[in-house]
């Protein structure tokens, strides 16, 4: 077993900073040695804040450093395929944020390279590590609700991203709903065999999304290969909270996941009772981001395949691509094949 895993973080934006901070201070067995971002001054700023000794604007600095064991890729989705490939070819284990790649056609190439170079890859589907989703998985696996029949998810975000982000995001099904496609497979223990999706632009201020074939509200109906069905509601315009919920109905009961509260405080007055609501993804999934990184580092230390693999990344990407195709064509789309469970 390798005691210390020397890491680099690539991409120090909204989420990259968070992963870097966790690796610098909270993940046992990890040593954050380099931070990288092409944005002038960003890597130096983060390095100084987190006490990291090396920084650069160039990812090659991490790839060509033989003392680095693993890279954490938190860059725009369109860069993932290239960066994973370069990392793997330089013998680095990879943690990559979702989605695995922007284009489905790149997923197999990336998986082949990871296999050829014999490096591990974990995809950042952090909901699998969220204590509530993880507990639900355990309960379903223990048979508490019988055979899972129906999956339901709502992911509602109120922070509408700016136009430049939407332009490159790949659309609501790829950028947002993909978390629910992954967690659907995880909780149901079945792969998705067909999807039918639809969507709308509900806010006047989001009309610009039409240029990019995107919407601020989407709905995906899923059919699973074991006969179950489900629906995924996805929204960028929730005016009240960052509201993430899931449910599985089985033959013997149902399991509901997610509360919207950030603190367990309730205010009671003669006007009624109130409590706070979670407003953004870092607050809702703070624990999950840390736990997924602990899992990645411990998998690399032990030389074990992590739980959320590149094959899982491809499976979710296949569902997202089919959902996008269905939204654009108005037709149900069959997934070409059941995803192989490879050893990546
Ligand atoms: N799991 C989640 O809940 C979650 C949440 C948000 C974002 N994401 C994913 O994380 C990734 C990054 O998203 P974000 O919101 O942090 O983006 P962001 O735009 O805030 O940050 C991206 C950073 O990457 C840098 N960058 C660009 N090209 C680079 C390169 N070649 N090498 C190194 N750095 C580079 C940019 O300068 C920027 O600082 C995306 O793939 C996104 O889908 C996941």
From TrEMBL:
InterPro entries: Gfo/Idh/MocA-like_OxRdtase_C, Gfo/Idh/MocA-like_OxRdtase_N, NAD(P)-bd_dom_sf
Gfo/Idh/MocA-like oxidoreductase C-terminal domain: residues covered: 137-335
Occurrences of domain Gfo/Idh/MocA-like oxidoreductase N-terminal (ranges): 5-125
Superkingdom field: Bacteria
Coiled coil spans: none
GO molecular function per UniProt: nucleotide binding; oxidoreductase activity
Pfam families with a match to the protein in the record: GFO_IDH_MocA, GFO_IDH_MocA_C
Keywords linked to the UniProt accession: Oxidoreductase
Recorded family membership: Belongs to the Gfo/Idh/MocA family.
PANTHER family in the record: BINDING ROSSMANN FOLD OXIDOREDUCTASE, PUTATIVE (AFU_ORTHOLOGUE AFUA_2G10240)-RELATED, NAD(P)-BINDING ROSSMANN-FOLD SUPERFAMILY PROTEIN-RELATED
Name this polypeptide is given: Inositol 2-dehydrogenase
Species name: Oceanobacillus oncorhynchi
């Amino acid at each position: 077993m390798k005691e210390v895993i020397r890491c680099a973080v690539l991409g120090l934006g909204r989420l990259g900073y968070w992963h870097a901070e966790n690796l610098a201070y909270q993940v046992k067995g990890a040593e954050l040695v380099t931070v990288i971002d092409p944005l002038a001054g960003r890597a130096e700023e983060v390095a100084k804040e987190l006490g990291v000794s090396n920084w650069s604007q160039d990812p090659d600095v991490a790839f060509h450093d033989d003392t680095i064991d693993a890279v954490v890729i938190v860059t725009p989705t369109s860069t993932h395929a290239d960066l994973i490939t370069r990392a793997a070819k330089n013998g680095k284990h990879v943690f990559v944020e979702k989605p695995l790649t922007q284009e489905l056609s790149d997923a197999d190439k990336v998986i082949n390279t990871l296999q050829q170079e014999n490096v591990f890859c974990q995809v950042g589907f952090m909901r699998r590590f969220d204590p509530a989703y993880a507990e639900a998985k355990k309960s379903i696996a223990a048979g508490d609700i019988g055979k899972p029949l129906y999956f339901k998810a709502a992911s509602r975000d109120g922070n509408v991203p700016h136009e430049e982000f939407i332009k490159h995001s790949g659309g609501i099904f790829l950028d947002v709903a993909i978390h629910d496609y992954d967690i659907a497979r995880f909780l149901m223990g079945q792969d998705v065999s067909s999807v039918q999706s639809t969507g709308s632009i509900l806010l006047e201020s989001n009309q610009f999304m039409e240029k990019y074939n995107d919407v601020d509200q989407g709905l995906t109906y899923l059919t699973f290969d074991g006969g179950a069905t489900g629906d995924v509601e996805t929204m960028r315009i929730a005016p009240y909270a960052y509201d993430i919920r899931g449910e599985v109905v089985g033959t013997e009961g149902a399991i509901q996941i997610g509360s919207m509260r950030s603190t367990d405080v309730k205010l009671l007055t003669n006007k009624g009772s109130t409590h706070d609501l979670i407003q953004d993804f870092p607050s809702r999934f703070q624990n999950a981001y840390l736990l997924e990184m602990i899992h990645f580092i411990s998998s690399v230390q032990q030389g074990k395949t992590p739980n959320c693999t590149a094959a899982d990344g491809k499976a979710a990407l296949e569902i997202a691509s089919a959902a996008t195709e269905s939204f654009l064509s108005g037709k149900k789309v069959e997934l070409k094949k059941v995803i192989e469970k490879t050893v990546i």
